[in-house]
């Protein structure tokens, strides 16, 4: 089967449509949950990322696939609210890391807890089905060995 055919077969088109629906619902719920904490969706995503580990601006930008200058503005606003602080990187003092404050970690946890999206539908899948779905999604984003 040629590449042109494989991209337009009904099954592929249906899968693409379903992925689009999942992404749209995820962003809609993320924006709602963020707004409840007086955050934009982008601020909430940066805070969630930093709650996993402090990161330099460039890494945040790479992970969120956006411009470092955008990340700087987002971190500035989170810092002004006392949710994030900039600290020197212990391994390279010239690099600044964005790190969540205690308040930022608490907000990130409340945000995570308020996101119900997909919890119920995922709960209907067996553990093996969830693992299979995770592995397929990892392959799709090129993260096989995560």
Automatic annotation (TrEMBL):
This is MarR family transcriptional regulator. The lineage of its organism: Bacteria, Bacillati, Actinomycetota, Actinomycetes, Kitasatosporales. Keywords: DNA-binding, Transcription, Transcription regulation. It comes from the Bacteria. Coiled coil: none annotated. SUPFAM superfamilies: Winged helix' DNA-binding domain (SSF46785). Residues 12-142 form the HTH marR-type domain. It holds the Pfam family MarR. It comes from Streptomyces tremellae.
């Amino acid at each position: 089967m040629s590449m042109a055919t494989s991209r337009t077969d009904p099954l592929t088109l249906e899968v693409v449509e379903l992925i689009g629906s999942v992404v749209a619902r995820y962003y809609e719920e993320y924006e709602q949950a963020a707004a409840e904490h007086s955050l934009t969706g982008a601020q909430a995503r940066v805070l969630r990322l930093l709650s996993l580990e402090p990161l330099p601006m460039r890494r945040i930008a790479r992970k969120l696939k956006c411009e470092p200058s955008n990340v700087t503005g987002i971190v500035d606003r989170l810092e002004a609210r006392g949710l994030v602080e900039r600290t020197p990187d212990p391994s390279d003092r010239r690099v600044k890391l964005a790190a969540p404050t205690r308040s930022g970690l608490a907000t990130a946890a409340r945000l995570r807890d308020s996101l119900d999206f997909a919890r119920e539908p995922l709960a209907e899948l067996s553990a093996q089905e969830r693992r299979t779905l995770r592995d397929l999604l990892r392959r799709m984003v090129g993260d096989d060995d995560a």
